Amino acid sequence: MGIALTRVMFLSLLRTATSLTQIHQIHAQILIHGLPLQTHLISKLIDLHSIDYARFVLDQTPSHADFSWNSLIRAYTLQGSPKNSLFLYLKMLRNSEKPSNFTYPFLLKACSTLGSVFEGEQIHTHVLRLGFGSDLFVCNSLIDMYCKCFCLESARNMWDDMEVRDDVSWNSIISGYVQWGQVGKARELFEEMPIRRNVVCWTAMINGYGKEGDFVEMLSLFRHMLVSADEVKPNAATMVCLLSACSALCNYEVGRFLSVFIDVNKFPLNAILVTALIDMYSKCGDVENAQRIFDGVSCKNLPSWNAMMTGYMQRGLLEQAIDLYRLMKAQLVKPNEITLVNVLSACAGLGALQLGREVHLYLGRNGLELNVILATALVDMYAKCGKINDACLVFVKTGQKDVALWNAMILGLAYHGDGRDAIAVFSQMKRAGLKPNDVTFIGVLSACNHSGLVEEGRFQFSSMDDKHGLSPKLEHYNCMVDLLGRAGHLEEAYELVKSMVIPPDSIIWGALLSACRIHRNLELTDKIGGVITAMQDPNIGFCILLSNIYASAGRWKDVARVRRLVKEQRIKKPSGCSWVEVDGVVHRFVVEDTTHLKSQEIYGTYEILVNHLKAEGYVGDLKLHTFKLMETW
User: Do 155 and 176 contact (CB within 8 A), yes or no?
Assistant: First the structure.
């Protein structure tokens, strides 16, 4: 068989090969027959994503066409190994191989990915030295590299020096200005464009106004785009930019319009656009439509699952979030940090300790790094599920601690009544050089409240402004009022409320009212009751509490007055619910629930417990529960 025929045969085999096993056999025959097919072999290996093998062939071949070098540089850049692109270029120069104009675009893209402006400037020098300074593709790549490395002046100088510009040149410089927040300069160039503005350019400008929060101008530009003489239609990227702005501003009306626009114009739904739609609906509170889109498409990626789960979490639909996580596992979708933080937060809210432990084990078994964000979620979950020792263990084992992690530990100890330990952790936090924030002091004051540390609470509250420059917010006042009220310092608590620089809300008045109930202070009850009943939307719980206080004092006229107020204003109490986790499954119950499959067994057990209590001589305290108010109002 002649060499020419053999070469044609093996070239055909290379083109049709689909596995590395076939490639190994063909490679062996190429070497045996001494055929000059290394360039084709390298190209095929790159197509099969076997970059290391392609590099091996390149290194073993004495001389190469520049196509082989360029192909491998391109492959390294596109497949996430930009440093290898630069190393290969250096080897190319050391081997006295001459780069071509096709060498530099992906080499400069590698510099952009790494943010390596120094190397990019050196490559720019090589470009000029080798005479490619007027090549349009190379110049566009240089502009893009400088923009992405935040060297806008160099990018603009490069752009100004270009004799010929195409739409990529304009897109690159405009996108660069937008990326670094100079939307005004981008708009000037946008209006000056002598050529037809394409969808990339329009989308870049729309995105720029969206990032600036200029919603009005963004929508104005979008409307202008639809009727522009450029005759350009928005694409999926345009819609993602618009939907992201609606999500950030929770603008449901415009978001809904965009969703309908996408349906009417039959946009092909890719994973990114689906995620943007789910996120917009979720952030705007329309979880039903978010779920409709999520369930109706097959092109879901991990961000789509996370967006849906985050939507459930934001609306307090914790059970649905956990159900979605179980569905993810069933469909073999691998969760990431965002997923697991959401699941741990749901476990914390539901007290689902077993599932929380499973997530913790998943982290270790799958080699996921326990970073500070996951550590914070774990500490919060263990603390809220009653396992404060496990929370402490996670906290201690985490090396780099940020303010959020310290806060989670302080709050966890506070809710467990370990006030002095919480204060000790707070002191460690300050010694570590971290600056406390508003959440920190909610934890510290809650710790004082749960442990009755009145003097410590007074000191920490005053130190917020005096030492840390933090103005107390409603949550801090609520903690202090509750602390002082529980300790019997009712007048001090009342004076604190009257001195507030921000209007007290119903929660603060309710905390003070609860203290009046404990200490039977009817004089102050009258004052607070007047405030609560005068509110535009009185809290039903505090109205019930007020009525019970009056009833326990025999003030039936006041009881009738409060009841009349509730009836006239048609104030309704939302149904309470509770959860319990059994064998990893979360069960939900509402008041007098009979929907559970084991309702009869549950109520039967309840009756047995009640009878046991009665047999032991237990009598409930009825003073504060004079009436089943919600049944009679």
Answer: yes
pLDDT tier for residue 199 given thresholds of 50, 70 and 90: very high
Measure the CA–CA gap between 204 and 237, rounded to whole angstroms. Answer: 9
Record the pTM: 0.78
CA atoms within 13 A on the CB side of 509: 24
pLDDT of residue 616: 78
Across 182-197, average pLDDT = 93
DSSP secondary structure letter of residue 264: H
Q: Are 136 and 104 in contact (CB under 8 A)?
A: no
Give the integer Cα–Cα distance in Å for 156 and 189. Answer: 11
CA neighbor of 146 nearest in space, from 134, 155, 159, 138: 155
Query: pLDDT tens across 246-262, in order?
Result: 999 999 999 999 999 99
Note the pLDDT of residue 54: 82
| Residue from 140, 127, 132 nearest 170 by CA | 140
CA pair distance 451, 593, nearest whole angstrom: 35
Rounded to an integer, what distance in angstroms lies between the CA atom of residue 50 and that of residue 42?
9
- Per DSSP, the three-state class of 178 is helix
**Token pair listed for 622:** 């009825």
Written as one string, the DSSP assignment of 421-439 is: HHHHHHHHHHHTTPPP-HH
Distance of CA 322 to the CA centre of its chain: 17
Instruction: Report the range of poorest mean pLDDT among 138-152, 471-485, 550-564.
Output: 550-564
Q: Tell me the two tokens of residue 135.
A: 């090549």
SS3 content of the chain, % helix, strand, coil (to 5): 70, 0, 25
DSSP reduced 3-state for 90: helix
Longest dimension (CA), the chain: 115
Give the DSSP letter of residue 585: E
Report the alpha-carbon distance of residue 536 to residue 184 in Å, rounded: 46
